[in-house]
TrEMBL record:
Keyword NADP: no
Annotated region described as Disordered, given as residue ranges: 446-470
Source species, domain of life: Eukaryota
Entry protein name: MOSC domain-containing protein
Source organism phylogeny: Eukaryota, Fungi, Dikarya, Ascomycota, Pezizomycotina
C-alpha cells in the first residue's frame, strides 16, 4: 500500500472513530438530559427499574410439576396498575390498604357515549330520550391503552430538592404517564426540528424503533387549592355509576388531542380519579363487615380489591394453545396484582382464606375472563382468538356459577383488623413472602379435599350479570 493511500485510510478511520465517539458522548448526554427532565423535584420513583421478578416466568421451574414436599408457596411478583388498563408498575413490596395495593387503579380513562335512557320494566312506549355518559374504556375496546407507560413518584424528604411547598410534594406525589408520538414533518424549520427530535429519541434510547414520547403528570392526592379546579361527575364502570373526580384539566389540550390520536379513539375522552370518599362498595361474594371489620370497596378495579394468580396456571394454559403468535403466554396479559410460584397449576381454584406476613385474605371467587388477555402487553396488538378461545375450551364450566365463561386466577379481599371507621390501614406485603392456605372450598365436580368446607365456590359472574347488591 503506498503512503498516500495508507494515510487516507488512517484519516478515514480517525474520522469514523471520532464520529462514533462523538455520537456516543452525545447519546450519553441525551440520556442524562432525559433523566434530569424526568426527575420530579422532591420525589423519588418507586418500583423495579430495569429488572423484573417475572423475567424467568417461562422457566420450567415454575410449571408447578414435581414440586418438593417442602416447597412453600411464595409471592413471585407484585404489580399495581395506577391508571386502569395502562402499563403496570412492578413493586418489590407494597402497602395493603382498604382498596387493595396502594396506588392500584386509582385513575381511569373514559369516553363520552350517547345512549338511550333505560326505560322502566313493562314500558312499551317509543324511547326517544338520549343521555351523554362518561363510560370507562379498557384494553378490551382500546388495546393501545396497554402502551401508555406509568410511573409512581412519591415525596422523598432525603432528596436535595425536597421542599414541603414543591408542587408534587404537596400532592403526595404523582403518576407520570407517557406515550410514543411521532408527529408528521416536512422540509421547513418546524419539520427539521421534528426530525431532530426523532433522531434524538432514537439516539438517546439507542433503538432505531424509538419514538419521541409525550408526558403528562397526575397528582396522587391533590391539595385543596389544586382540587378546586376539578369537577365531580358521574361516570359508568360496568353497571356502576359512581361519582368520581374529573381531572382532565391536568392534561394539556394539545397532549389530550395527541393521546386520542394515539389511542385511536374518536369520541371525546376524559380522565377520572377515584373519589377517596366514595369508593364502590363490594358485596356479593365479598365478606361482610362482621367478618372483615369493614365493607370492602374498590377504586376502578373491575370487582374486588386484589387479584392473585399462580404462574404455573398460566404455563399450563400456554401449553394447550396452538395458534398463539408468541412462543409463550405472558402472565402479564392477565393483569393480576400478585403472582405466585411453587404451586401446582390451578391450585388456587379452591382457596378460601390465605395468610401472608401477618395478614389474612378472603379469597372471594374465581376471576371470570373476557378477551382482554388477547392483547399482547408488549406490542399492544390484540389477537382475534387467543388465548380466550383456548380458555373457553379448557377453563369453561370450571365454576358452576360462571358456566361457559372461562375462569383463571382469584379475586381477594384483605381482612384488615381494626379497619372499621378508618380510611386506611397499612400492612406491608413483599415478594418472596410465604403464602399459607388456611381453608379451601369444595372442589367443584368432585369430592372435597381433606379439611375443606362443603360450601360451593362463589363466583364473579353473579357480580357482573346480576349486580343486585345487598
Amino acid at each position: 500500500m503506498d503512503s498516500s493511500l495508507q494515510g487516507g485510510v488512517i484519516a478515514l478511520i480517525t474520522i469514523l472513530a471520532t464520529s462514533i465517539a462523538s455520537l456516543l458522548a452525545f447519546s450519553n448526554q441525551l440520556r442524562k438530559d432525559q433523566e434530569s427532565e424526568s426527575t420530579i423535584p422532591g420525589c423519588r420513583r418507586i418500583g423495579l427499574i430495569g429488572r423484573s421478578n417475572m423475567s424467568d416466568q417461562y422457566s420450567p421451574k415454575h410449571n408447578g410439576e414435581n414440586l418438593d414436599s417442602s416447597a412453600a408457596c411464595k409471592i413471585k411478583a407484585l404489580f399495581i396498575y395506577p391508571v386502569k388498563s395502562c402499563k403496570p408498575v412492578e413493586l418489590e413490596d407494597s402497602d395493603v390498604i382498604l382498596t387493595g395495593l396502594r396506588y392500584d387503579r386509582q385513575f381511569c380513562f373514559t369516553q363520552l357515549k350517547t345512549e338511550q335512557v333505560e326505560k322502566e320494566e313493562g314500558d312499551l312506549s317509543v324511547n326517544s330520550e338520549w343521555v351523554h355518559n362518561w363510560k370507562f374504556i379498557t384494553q378490551r375496546n382500546v388495546p393501545r391503552l396497554s402502551q401508555v407507560d406509568t410511573q409512581i413518584w412519591i415525596p422523598d424528604p432525603s432528596s436535595p430538592t425536597y421542599s414541603p411547598k414543591a408542587e408534587w410534594v404537596k400532592s403526595q406525589g404523582c403518576v407520570v404517564c407517557s406515550f410514543a408520538f411521532t408527529p408528521e414533518w416536512s422540509w421547513n424549520m418546524s419539520g427539521l426540528r421534528t426530525a431532530f427530535s426523532i433522531f434524538k429519541a432514537k439516539l438517546a434510547q439507542r433503538d432505531i424503533k424509538a419514538e419521541p414520547r409525550i408526558t403528562f403528570k397526575l397528582p396522587i392526592a391533590p391539595d385543596e387549592e389544586r382540587s378546586s379546579k376539578y369537577t365531580r361527575e358521574v361516570m359508568k364502570i360496568w353497571k356502576d355509576s359512581p361519582t368520581a373526580i374529573n381531572i382532565t384539566s391536568e392534561i394539556p389540550p394539545e397532549t389530550l388531542a395527541k393521546l386520542k390520536y394515539f389511542l385511536g379513539v374518536s369520541n371525546p375522552i376524559a380522565l377520572f380519579k377515584a373519589d377517596p370518599l366514595n369508593h364502590r362498595k363490594v358485596f356479593r361474594n365479598a365478606p361482610r363487615i362482621e367478618e372483615a371489620g369493614y365493607q370492602p370497596g374498590v377504586g376502578f378495579a373491575d370487582a374486588y380489591p386484589l387479584s392473585i394468580m399462580g404462574v404455573a396456571s398460566v404455563q399450563k394454559v400456554s401449553k394447550t394453545i396452538t395458534n398463539l403468535p408468541t412462543p409463550h403466554l405472558n402472565a402479564l396479559r392477565f393483569r393480576a396484582n400478585i403472582y405466585l410460584t411453587n404451586t401446582p397449576p390451578f391450585a388456587e381454584d379452591d382457596w378460601k382464606q390465605i395468610r401472608s406476613r401477618n395478614l389474612s385474605y378472603h379469597v372471594s371467587c374465581r376471576t371470570t375472563r373476557c378477551d382482554l388477555p388477547n392483547v399482547d402487553p408488549v406490542t399492544g396488538i390484540k389477537d382475534r382468538a387467543e388465548p380466550y378461545k383456548t380458555l373457553k375450551q379448557t377453563r369453561g364450566f370450571v365454576d358452576k356459577g360462571a358456566g361457559a365463561h372461562p375462569v383463571l386466577g382469584m379475586q381477594m379481599v384483605p381482612l384488615l383488623e381494626d379497619a372499621a371507621g378508618k380510611g386506611e390501614i397499612r400492612v406491608d406485603t413483599k415478594t418472596g413472602s410465604t403464602i399459607f392456605v388456611y381453608t379451601r372450598y369444595m372442589a367443584i365436580g368432585g369430592s372435597p379435599r381433606p379439611g375443606t368446607t362443603q360450601q360451593p365456590h362463589r363466583h364473579p359472574t353473579q357480580y357482573f350479570q346480576q349486580h343486585n347488591r345487598q
